[in-house]
Specification:
Shape of chain A: elongated
Radius of gyration of chain A: 27 Å
Strand content of chain A: 15-25%
Largest sheet of chain A: 10 strands, mixed
Strand order of the largest sheet of chain A: 2-1-3-12-11-4-5-10-8-9
Number of helices of chain A: 14
Oligomer: homodimer
Largest interface: A-B, 102 and 101 residues
Structural class of chain A: alpha/beta
Chain lengths: ~475, ~475
């Protein structure tokens, strides 16, 4: 079989050592790779590339479509942006996949039976970083969840489960509160799950789900989540497995995929032949399966499991009693190489070859028939402050009622999601950020048009009411597209 | 000392039994209470009150300002809204406080040394439930964080620590990503912490913090968080302490406070003298301290600890070997009553009397000098779809450039937070939700005015570009109030 081109970056700190160790194992296991090397990280930042990667390196990534990346150091001081964010955004890496496995009794953990894979949506949610200072007192961040974004990640989770012989995919959402955004994610999960009849599907509200996962992770298999929950809970899962230093992850896009360790560049350990290469190595195992070399992945991963089991441990894993031999980075890699062809005796051997299946060529996303959208009103957000946190809602109401007209009328005013006008409670605490909902004077749900909205905005301007933000209200196929 | 009026609701399912048990212990411990009873829950919902509480019951809550609440059952079917949300919103209960304690070796847990209090902001964040369907493909939820809201909760956490003799308050935020919203929460934490020199203050990025808390909770004391993180992590903390059935919580407002168990009404266990009253009982301990009866709180809480330690356990806690006697709800309460005056021998006794201090009369919130706000542009959000997820940004750019004029010009177009125009990548995946940023044609940061904005909106309308949402761009005291 032909070699597969990949792009490799050796990174900073312990990066070069653990990359050398990883590549040594891969080579000896027979991985069929053509390696292109690029430089990323500290030197590249300091040479004036604000994201830590040179423009020409993107060409390599776009050509090979596979990136094995060592950890980097972001220089101190301002003006440097995250390399991972740049790579994720530029290449559309929508899925972050993190297997969290315990290696009891060889690595200490309170959860001896744990083998959970977190599949985290990687582009949307509050992590798009779209924020606005609204007023003196209020900041806002937009949480965006899209249908195609959710479809991509949910389908990826099921395809992953199928490819790796997993039995169950669980969805974590908070759709009892965020009925629209998390509701969309949940609905898409429910739509896609039946396409995979061999895989069990269930869901938890994220608070209870997180509690169960933290206490009894053995009851979970693959868990798919929106970005924020996935960020927090993938760290929880890696930590309680006892193995942050042993976890690798992949970042998957439609064209390009990146594989790495989840830990950082640990500059204080650099250059001393101390670091544990296991995180990056396990990232490279995900890469081998991705580029369709499951035979090599299986050989190398089983040799690594056997090494762990034989008690050949780097300093971070070494524990008197359990461990047998404390070794350096190079010696650890050599110990794995020496065990190529062997399987673990206590830990469960991996069997990628047997499980890899041809995936059906599903579309990555489908679009239902476009909904019929009708404009039915607008939420106008005002910056307004009368010097006190209490009892001013009726004063604002009186001012805003004055701009009613040409078919639009003020329906309610809310403050931080609590209705305060009309019929509010005088003891409700209010800040300087007010949402005024205007609907048709024929009643809520009746169509209005953009000209009416535009005229309303003009009247607000003339009345010196400080509009800082608007959200149009629509129905989609006759159903309300906005919360109360 | 005079009796303190409180409002009590017996709730549904196991509610009446555990409330009777709790009130029996409080009475025998000498609590000085005048009890007003209100009805909430299933019957009240079915009588036509959509939030499960009758209008006249609010009067009792506003009068006594103290609410001891048993769990309720929300009827199946639509149209019923959450009682807790209604109470929280109407009465402004801004702080949710949940002590999570392990009772090793008497209650099994993987974390024998755990005594963490989660203080969760309860009104803001994405939990205000403000959501909009934006387009065919995209849903939005607003995350709002306010200065006074953050100040209230952070100050509450420190005051709590002071009152209960706690040593450290930790803040969990994600301000490396949400620099404005979570950044505000963090900044206020840093401002308030120095007012409490006897209490250690630190902070974690929520992902790492959650991982540490789940693995080694013994390193945490009081943790204060925005709403969403607090929701998820308070459930994690209660579960890993081994004691969801044993946890009480308080919901604190400026005027009214509510105390409850964190578990539900468990209808299948109802009426059988089976249920464990400990969650509600521990909620009532928080209430006793709140109404300044720390002597009674200490007596009752120590008697309860002694009962747990003596192995007198309800069915849910009973474990052969550890437990001595399996008892019902009433017998458990009587066992606690029988131990009033005793202290635990193995578990640490509580000492509320010694720790209660007069709190300085700090203001709940302060307002710095209002910032000078200057309008410098607007983000216009468009619903636009050209039938494909790739390669159309330049087409949209060309259309939008046509509305430039009267001092405003298109600066960038972004899609889900990724810049796609000008100089976008053709392989960037885009959905039907576009953010067009307009700034002064003198350059970003130059002032513009509302009339220019209004004229721009008119040109967009005439050009049939479908504006669905706007966010004005401001500087505050010269600093940008918006993300890139």
């Amino acid at each position: 079989m032909a070699n597969v081109p990949i792009t490799v970056a050796h990174g900073d700190g312990i990066g070069p050592e653990i990359m050398d160790a990883t590549l040594h194992i891969l080579k000896e296991a027979g991985a069929r790779l053509d390696i292109e090397t690029i430089e990323i990280g500290e030197k590249v930042y300091l040479a004036g590339n604000s994201a830590g990667i040179a423009p020409e390196s993107w060409e390599s990534l776009r050509r090979t479509k596979v990136f094995l990346k060592a950890p980097i150091t972001t220089p101190q001081g301002g003006g440097f942006s995250s390399l991972n964010v740049a790579v994720r955004k530029t290449l559309g890496l929508y899925a972050n996949v993190r297997p969290c496995v315990s290696y009891h009794p060889f690595v200490s953990t309170k959860h001896p039976v744990m083998d959970v894979v977190i599949v985290r949506e990687n582009e949307e949610d509050t992590y798009a970083g779209i924020e606005y200072r609204q007023t003196d007192q209020v900041e806002e961040c937009l949480k965006l969840i899209s249908r195609p974004g959710s479809e991509k990640i949910v389908r990826y989770a099921f395809e992953y489960a199928k490819k790796f012989g997993r039995k169950k995919v669980t969805c974590f959402i908070k759709d009892n509160i965020m009925k629209r955004t998390d509701g969309l994610f949940h609905r898409i999960f429910d739509q896609i799950a039946p396409e995979y009849p061999g895989i069990e599907a269930d869901h938890w509200i994220v608070d209870i789900g997180a509690a169960k996962m933290s206490d009894t992770p053995e009851n979970f298999d693959v868990i798919v989540m929106p970005n924020l929950y996935g960020d927090v809970l993938s760290d929880v899962a890696a930590q309680i497995a006892g193995s942050v230093g042993l976890a690798g992850s992949s970042n998957i896009g439609e064209n390009v995929a990146m594989f790495e360790a989840i830990h950082g560049s640990a500059p204080r350990r650099a250059g001393q032949n101390l670091a544990n290469p296991s995180g990056l190595f396990l990232g490279s195992i995900l890469m081998l399966v991705h580029i369709n070399q499951p035979d090599i992945a299986e050989l190398a991963h089983n040799a690594w499991l056997r090494t762990i089991e034989d008690g050949v441990h780097t300093y971070d894993m070494f524990k008197e009693g359990t461990s047998k031999e404390k070794v350096g980075t190079r010696e650890f890699a050599q110990a794995v190489v020496d065990r190529i062809g062997q399987k673990p005796q206590t830990l469960k051997p991996v069997t990628y070859s047997a499980n890899v299946v041809e995936t059906d060529a599903k579309p990555i996303y489908t679009l239902p028939h476009p909904a019929v959208k009708e404009l039915v009103g607008i939420d106008i957000f005002l910056d307004w402050w009368k010097g006190t946190f209490y009892g001013v809602a009726n004063d604002l109401g009186a001012l805003v009622e004055q701009v009613n007209g040409n078919g639009l009328k003020l329906q309610t005013i809310a403050n931080r999601g609590v209705k305060v006008y009309p019929d509010g409670q005088p003891d409700t605490f209010t800040v300087d950020h007010w949402r005024c909902r205007f609907v048709s004077d024929q009643g809520e749900g009746h169509a209005v048009n953009k000209h009416q909205i535009h005229a309303l905005l003009e009247r607000l301007m003339v009345a010196h009411l400080d509009v800082i933000k608007t959200e149009n209200l629509y129905t989609f196929d006759g159903a309300k597209g906005y919360s109360a």
